[in-house]
Specification:
Blueprint lengths: L1 E6 L4 E8 L3 E9 L1 H5 L6 H23 L8 E7 L3 H18 L3 E5 H12 L7 E6 L4 E8 L2 E7 L5 H11 L7 H8 L24 H17 L5 H27 L3 E5 L6 H14 L2 E3 L3 H4 L4 H12 L20
Parallel strand pairs: 1-4, 4-5, 6-9, 9-10
Antiparallel strand pairs: 1-2, 2-3, 6-7, 7-8
This protein binds 5'-O-[(R)-(carboxyoxy)(hydroxy)phosphoryl]adenosine.
Length: about 325
């Protein structure tokens, strides 16, 4: 079964052709990140306009690279939630018109379900149930992946997403947008104990997290140094920050694993590219004999291949949409 998939929930416009869920025939991405960089974060209206400009050409390019004619497409999958509403609507409207024109089913896909499915593309041996740490610009959650289309959120951030913290701190340090990658590079070789940043706990909710206090602590450190004219060691600062994020995510992931007992852990989303988090998780999994699946860096960020992959499993579960499909800015993964 060949699925043409679209993703447009934030600042990446993407199209892909997937075969039988896990085989990637093509995956093309256009990003408007450069345009947002001057503002230090995504400007929704700019993102929407760039999606409109890019999506048609990307659809053609995905088909061309896959060597597939549009008449061979069996279904169209699209991210319909959660995300920037204007951005999502571009993908949903375009996918609807393509599916209608080709006379094939339309499959709505939850964005974070797609991020989890990126692991299926890279790891053919991975099957539910497993625990997934979902960490991106908009999400930080521990998800029980009960099967391909049944999910339960076990815990997550009460305030900022982990990726958002990387981005906000990088902005203040002048490292550009998105800031996670540059922050990761800056942390290499830094002393992760140089700055004592807080690790927050949510009383009586051992799997929940909070990143806003950490973000404020780092920003205060930067502003204080600027006001006093003191030089900060950016390598140490980035390493200390990454350690605090990892110390928040990793013990909770291992606790959730202990509670579920699957001993199978996957990571999903843009922050899954972070070298410190990857290394800490691998070390802790090795200690308890848990198997860890990490997506390749190319599939950590937003892409349409993951949407086509999850779309396949949604289709098998009978989850298709009518022509009245609407986009949703927020939606719990268990309801997607
Ligand atoms: O999954 P994604 O592309 O978009 C969302 O669905 O949100 O994630 C983007 C986020 C951004 O916040 C970006 O700074 C972060 O992932 N990111 C990283 C790294 N690479 C990207 N965060 C930490 N370390 C990285 N190496």
């Amino acid at each position: 079964m060949k699925i043409l998939a679209f993703e447009s929930s934030c600042d990446e416009t993407a199209a892909a052709v997937m075969e039988d869920g896990r085989t990637m025939l093509s995956s093309v991405i256009a990003s408007s990140a450069d345009m947002h960089a001057i503002y230090g974060g995504v400007v929704p209206e700019i993102a929407s306009r760039k999606h409109v400009e890019a999506i048609s050409g990307l659809a053609d390019e995905a088909l061309r690279q896959a060597g597939v004619d549009k008449s061979e497409i069996d279904a169209v999958a699209v991210t319909y939630a959660p995300g920037l509403i204007g951005a999502l609507l571009v993908g949903v409207s375009f996918a609807k018109s393509v599916a209608y024109g080709l006379g094939v089913p339309l499959i709505p896909v939850h964005h974070v379900r797609g991020h989890i499915a990126a692991n299926y593309i890279a790891h053919t041996d991975l099957e539910p149930p497993f625990l997934c740490l979902c960490v991106s610009g908009g999400t930080t959650a521990l998800v029980d992946v009960k099967d391909y289309t049944h999910f339960e959120v076990l815990g997550g951030t009460r305030d900022d997403a982990s990726g958002e913290c990387f981005d906000k701190i990088a902005r203040v340090l002048g490292l550009g947008y998105p800031g996670g990658g540059p922050m990761d590079k800056m942390a290499q070789g830094g002393n992760d104990k140089a700055y004592a940043f807080p690790r927050a706990h949510v009383a009586d909710h051992p799997l929940d997290m909070s990143f806003s206090g950490l973000k404020t602590a780092v920003l205060n450190t930067v502003h204080n140094a600027q006001q006093k004219g003191e030089e900060l060691d950016l390598h140490d600062l980035a390493a200390s920050f990454a350690a605090a994020v990892s110390d928040t995510l990793v013990p909770r992931t291992m606790e959730a694993n202990r509670m579920l007992g699957y001993n199978k852990i996957a990571v999903a989303g843009g922050v899954a590219a972070n070298s410190r988090i990857r290394a800490d998780l691998q070390r802790e999994c090795d200690k308890v004999g848990a198997k860890l699946w990490l997506p390749p860096l190319s599939l950590c960020g937003d892409n349409a291949a993951m949407i086509g992959c999850q779309g396949y499993y949604e289709y098998l579960a009978g989850n298709t949409a009518g022509w009245d499909l609407n986009a949703k800015a927020s939606l719990d993964i268990s309801k997607g």
